[in-house]
Each structure stands twice: as structure tokens, then as C-alpha cells.
């Protein structure tokens, strides 16, 4: 089994997906462990000097003015975990829990928390043993995901519930079966466990990974739709993209061109209109705009995964602990909002392409791609994908500015990062349905043309679709087809087959 080595500096979004979804093991490097030990020693040194340090020997939030004495460190930190278990359902999936725990573990290894090394090891051991705390997704306003991440601390104490070997069981039972001992908390440990942005960051990494696949699928489905339309390839001409050198649109145009290698679509046809509707003509440009947005957010989230979001923050070289606001993630929360709006644009062009494929004025094929006059075919399916697009448009509205002043007016700013990530996740899932419906239309249009040769990549996509969604020869329950098309895209099977075909 693959192992991902963690040092607090080099975790990638792709590695998060490997650990979360493919069960890769994690291992803390010796260098990172030494960093943890040194920062922990500094905690004890400062406590012994009786220096007031937020979350160490003082309370947190509005209770920052309350002292915590050494003899009460363990009790106080346990109470901090208990009092911050405030999240409400739904619960994060086990994949998402793994991503969340990995995100927090790697930021701990930066060495700015002062947490005891044994707790960092506990994150690693729980991941490798498959002990996944039950984490509610709602309750964080984005200024550290305190109300949700506290449930990880609860499980580490041997309390609350976890998922283990496919079942929800008590944390005490799972730890015992996995040969893990509950942790004993000391100064700063409770705050270090609960106070980070790992919920939004971990789930966000998986969403970005899905968007990358979604964009590749969007390109190949558009290419198949272009063949179904018998559309123009001039908007793919790389000479035009070099005249307007945006990275994303050039990349999409190049990929689409590759998928169409060997297709009839390149042959001259004087019956074609000079230009296609903008939803076809500008697809590479719109897909590219999403790619550019994705690259921007990936950069910011990668920084998040490899840096400290702790308050206070330990500066080892100066032997200082400094109050700060490094849990502020408005930068990449805004990025996810941008992605939501960009994906809404992608949804719109996909929906318009589907509508055009059902219109004889554009395809010169039958109405709603019906194979016969007595078959309704795709006569009503437009309601389904436009309803999904409406949901996407609504979810793309920003939520980053909706917050209250909390904790005695001390916490008077927020960004709602977890909710923003989660609504982006929903947008992505809806888009897989819409693209699945487009794939159904594109394959049907290609079949109705009957005598054409399609491209190398689009042929692989067509074959993948037809394995689960047969040619529409008579009216049937289309909900089944929609679900099958969604699953072939969502599972990555279609994309895998296209990639394999392109590599041959």
C-alpha cells in the first residue's frame, strides 16, 4: 500500500485524495517529529516562566482573561473539548473525515502549535487503523472549525462515536480493537485539536480534486456533443488561442482537439453554418475560465495545507508565542465562491448545448433526437437539467459576507468557509448529472448520424456511455438512464477509458 510521508511542507491536493479515497497510509518524517518535540518543550518553558499565553494558561475566546493553573491543565483541556462539541448533522463521509484529519495533522507538523507529539502520532495511527471520528459538518463560521473538529478530540479521549470497519461504533470500542490508547491532554492540546480550518481545508481539497476531473470530463463530453451537432472546429484552432493567451482555454482547446483526432468533424462540409451558437463556439473558453479559477484556488489551498493556521503561533527561532489571526481563510473562501460562479457558467453552456442537440434547426436531425415519429425520446428531460442548473445558480450566490459578531464582540469577522466548500461540492455533484444528460444526448445524436467516424477520445467516451445507457429506440424510464450516466462519469470510469485510449 502506498505511503504518504508528512513533514508539514509538501502535502499536495492529489495526496489528500490518495489518503482519503484510496486508503494510502501516512507516516510522519523524523524531521517533523523533532520539530514537534522542540515546539512542545518551548510550551513547557514558557508555562514554567508564568508567562500568560492564550490557550495555554489562559482561557479562550471571551474567557481569555481567565487563568488556568498547571494542576488543572488536563481537566481544562478535556473541558475545552467537551464544551466545543457543538456541531450538527449531516456528518462528513469517511473519505472526508480522512481528508480533514490529514489536513490537520500536516499543519501540526509545521511546529507552530506546541501540541504534544503523541497527539500528532494519534492522528496518524487513527488514519492508518481506519478509526474515523463521526464529525458533524455544520457549526463552523470559518474562523477555525472549532465546533466540528472538537469531535476528533472527543474520539481521541475514547468518547463519542467513530466509523470503524464500515460500522458506527463507540470510540472506546474502536480504539480498543485497533490497539490504540486514548490520549492524555496537557497545556494547549485541546485548543490545538479544535482550533484549525481542517474541516473546510480537507473537504475543500477533495472538491478541488473532483473539479479537476469534472473539467476533463466536460471537455470530452463537449467534444462528443460537437460531433453530434456536426459543429464547427474553427474555435479550437490554436492560432486563435495564441492571439489571446489565457492558459485555461488553450489547455481545454488542445485537449478537445486531441479527443477529436480522426473524427469526421474535421472534413469540410459546406452545409454547415459559418458559426455555431456560443454555447458550442465558446465552450473551450468557458471551460478554460473554470480551469483558471481552479488553478488560483489550488495554489491558495496548497499553502493552507502546508502552513500554520494556529492562534497563538509559535515562532521557534525567537522562542516566542505570538497572538495572531492565521485562522483567517477569507482568501481561499473567496476563491471557492469564484469557483462556484465559474461552475455555474459551465453548467449554463452545457444546458444550452443539450437544448441545441434536441433542436432540428441546429442538428438537422429529428426533434428531441427521436428515432421514430411515435417515440417521444428526450421531449421532457429539459425540465430535469434546467432544474439542476437553477439549483447550481442559487448555490453560486456568495455566502462569504454573512456573519455576526460573536464571543462578546471579540470575534466580529467570519467567512463561512465550510459552508462555501460544501455548497461548491453540491454544485459539482449536480454538474455530473447535467454532463451525464449531455452525454446521453451526444451519444444519441452520433447514433442518428449512423455513417460517421468519431474521434479517438470521443469513441472511448461513446463506448463507455453505451455500456450502461443503450440507444434510445423506444420510450423507457429515463431516470434509470440519467442515474447510470451520472455514475459512469462520477466513478471516473469514462475518464479512465478515455485516458487509456489516448495513451495507446
Number of strands: 9
Categorize the overall geometry. Answer: elongated
Question: How many domains is the backbone divided into?
Answer: 2
- The total of helices stands at 20
The CATH architecture of the largest domain: Up-down Bundle
Strand-pairing-aware structural class:
mainly alpha
H and E string:
EHEHHEHHEEHEEHHHHHHHEEHHHHHHH
CATH topology of the largest domain: Fumarase C, Chain A, domain 2
Features:
single chain, 504 residues, mainly alpha, Fumarase C, Chain B, domain 1, Fumarase C, Chain A, domain 2, 2 domains, 3-stranded antiparallel β-sheet, two-stranded parallel sheet, 9 strands
Explain this structure to me?
By secondary structure, the protein is mainly alpha-helical. The protein has 2 domains: 3-196, Fumarase/aspartase (N-terminal domain) (Fumarase C, Chain B, domain 1); 204-302 and 345-503, Fumarase C, Chain A, domain 2, CATH 1.20.200.10. The chain contains 20 helices and 9 strands. Strands 4-6-7 form a 3-stranded antiparallel sheet. A two-stranded parallel ribbon has the order 1-2. A hairpin with a 4-residue loop joins strand 8 and strand 9. Helix 4 packs across helix 9 (198-229). The radius of gyration is 26 Å and the shape is elongated. The model has no long low-confidence stretch (mean pLDDT 92).
Amino acid at each position: 500500500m502506498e505511503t504518504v510521508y508528512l513533514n508539514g511542507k509538501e502535502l499536495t491536493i492529489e495526496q489528500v485524495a490518495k489518503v482519503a479515497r484510496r486508503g494510502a497510509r501516512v507516516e510522519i518524517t523524523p524531521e517533523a517529529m523533532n520539530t514537534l518535540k522542540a515546539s512542545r518543550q518551548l510550551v513547557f518553558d514558557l508555562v514554567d516562566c508564568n508567562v500568560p499565553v492564550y490557550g495555554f494558561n489562559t482561557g479562550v475566546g471571551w474567557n481569555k482573561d481567565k487563568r488556568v493553573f498547571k494542576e488543572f491543565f488536563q481537566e481544562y483541556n478535556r473541558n475545552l473539548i467537551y464544551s466545543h462539541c457543538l456541531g450538527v448533522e449531516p456528518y462528513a463521509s469517511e473519505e472526508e473525515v480522512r481528508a480533514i484529519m490529514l489536513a490537520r495533522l500536516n499543519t501540526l507538523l509545521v511546529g507552530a502549535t506546541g501540541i504534544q507529539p503523541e497527539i500528532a502520532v494519534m492522528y496518524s495511527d487513527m488514519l492508518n487503523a481506519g478509526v474515523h471520528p463521526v464529525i458533524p459538518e455544520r457549526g463552523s463560521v470559518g474562523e477555525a472549525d472549532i465546533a466540528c473538529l472538537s469531535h476528533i478530540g472527543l474520539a481521541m479521549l475514547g468518547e463519542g462515536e467513530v466509523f470503524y470497519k464500515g460500522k458506527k461504533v463507540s470510540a472506546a470500542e474502536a480504539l480498543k480493537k485497533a490497539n490504540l490508547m486514548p490520549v492524555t491532554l496537557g497545556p494547549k492540546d485541546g485548543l490545538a485539536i479544535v482550533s484549525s480550518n481542517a474541516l473546510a481545508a480537507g473537504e475543500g481539497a477533495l472538491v478541488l480534486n473532483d473539479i479537476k476531473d469534472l473539467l476533463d470530463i466536460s471537455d470530452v463530453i463537449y467534444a462528443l456533443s460537437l460531433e453530434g451537432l456536426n459543429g464547427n472546429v474553427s474555435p479550437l484552432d490554436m492560432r486563435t488561442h495564441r492571439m489571446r493567451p489565457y492558459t485555461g482555454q488553450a489547455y481545454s482547446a488542445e485537449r478537445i482537439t486531441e479527443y477529436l483526432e480522426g473524427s469526421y468533424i474535421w472534413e469540410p462540409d459546406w452545409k454547415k453554418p459559418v458559426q455555431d451558437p456560443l454555447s458550442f463556439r465558446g465552450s473551450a473558453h468557458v471551460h478554460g475560465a473554470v480551469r483558471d479559477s481552479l488553478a488560483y484556488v489550488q495554489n491558495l489551498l496548497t499553502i493552507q495545507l502546508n502552513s500554520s493556521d494556529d492562534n497563538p503561533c509559535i515562532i521557534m527561532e525567537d522562542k516566542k508565542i505570538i497572538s495572531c489571526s492565521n485562522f483567517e481563510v477569507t482568501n481561499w473562501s473567496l476563491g471557492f465562491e469564484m469557483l462556484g460562479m465559474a461552475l455555474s457558467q459551465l453548467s449554463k453552456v452545457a444546458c444550452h448545448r443539450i437544448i441545441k442537440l434536441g433542436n432540428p434547426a441546429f442538428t438537422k436531425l429529428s426533434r428531441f433526437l427521436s428515432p421514430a415519429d411515435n417515440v417521444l425520446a428526450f421531449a421532457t428531460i429539459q425540465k430535469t437539467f434546467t432544474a439542476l442548473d437553477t439549483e447550481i445558480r442559487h448555490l453560486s450566490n456568495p455566502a462569504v459576507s454573512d456573519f455576526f459578531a460573536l464571543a462578546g464582540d471579540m470575534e466580529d469577522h467570519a467567512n463561512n468557509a465550510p459552508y462555501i466548500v460544501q455548497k461548491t461540492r453540491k454544485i459539482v455533484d449536480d454538474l455530473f448529472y447535467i454532463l451525464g444528460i449531455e452525454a446521453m444526448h451526444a451519444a444519441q445524436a452520433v447514433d442518428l448520424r449512423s455513417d460517421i467516424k468519431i474521434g479517438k477520445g470521443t469513441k472511448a467516451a461513446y463506448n463507455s456511455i453505451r455500456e450502461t445507457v443503450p440507444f434510445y429506440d423506444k420510450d423507457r424510464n429515463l431516470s434509470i438512464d440519467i442515474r447510470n450516466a451520472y455514475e459512469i462519469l462520477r466513478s471516473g470510469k469514462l475518464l479512465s477509458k478515455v485516458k487509456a485510449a489516448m495513451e495507446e
